[in-house]
Amino acid sequence: MGTQKPRAAVAADPILEQLTEADYLAIYRHMRMAREFENRIIKLYRQGKIVGGVYTGTGNEATSVGSAFALGKEDILLPLHRDIGAHLVRGQTARRLMCQYMGRRNGLTRGRDGNMHNGDHSLGIFAMVSHLGTMIPVAAGAALGGRLLGKDLVSMNYIGDGGTSIGDFHEGLNFAAVMNLPMILIIENNQYAYSTPTHQQYACADLVDRARGYGIPGVMVDGNDVLEVYAVASQAVERARAGKGPTLIESKSMRMRGHSEHDDHFYVPKDLLTDWEKKDPIRRFEKVLKEKGYIREGKLEEMGKKVLDELEEAVRFAEKSDFPEPHEAAEGVYAD
Fold first, then answer.
1. Alpha-carbon distance 243 to 24, whole Å?
2. Positions marked active-site
3. Structure pTM?
4. CA-CA distance, 222 to 262, in Å (whole number)?
5. Is residue 189 part of a domain?
6. Digit-coded pLDDT (tens) for 280-334
């Protein structure tokens, strides 16, 4: 088992040749919706309409959307707090997510939480746990459970660069490797674990090099190239479904905002952010769409307006929705 360094996702890639024009436009819309949704909740947070933390995936949209787009309907997704794009790909709506953030009764946690600690089993989404690394054993368990039930499913989980330093990363990934489970773990390497840069987190050249120690394949991708992410994730899904076990993917990108909206990320060099702004995943994909002739004059603006209109409607819907009653806090907490 070896580590594969970046592979270019080119037009001749047989995996990409299977994508239709509608697929390309759907990928773009999910990325655009993820970006604009988070821009909108930032404004609501600053207006005092959202309490708690607001964690965004600005600049990471290619990773969340490209990877989730490779999954099948019966597969299990275990996203983290910067993976709103993955939620959208699986069919989650802006309405329900907005109600979730605004603590409404018809949100995904029925008003018990106000940010990304949510899932939807009807869409195959398992809710994230605050201690992020603990999701890796859960992802392994989902893959094992699917096997025991005779289901042909794959589980996909994410971890940040900082989360690779905790014990759950080793224990969960080692268990998945030993049991040859159909699981994919994606390291979202966005350069900083809160304020700690990667060079202070690990001594290996690349985190994906650790895959060799578990006896599984490791692939590094350009986290700002949605097609490359999709192609590599699709290969990993196909491999897992064929009974060949887990894959570790390292997606290199950049966290373009603070750890959360209360953090002004003063510790990140401004020239580093400027360099990564030039690699914006949405702008890069727009260029691809134009080259393929999928986006004509005025189409981007039209799609952008539809996204913003949908978000404004979602905000209005959430603001008109009821907050939960106090007694509801004790309902549905325990299984029967």
1. 29
2. 255, 259, 267
3. 0.93
4. 28
5. yes
6. 999 999 999 999 999 887 888 999 999 999 999 999 999 999 999 998 888 877 7
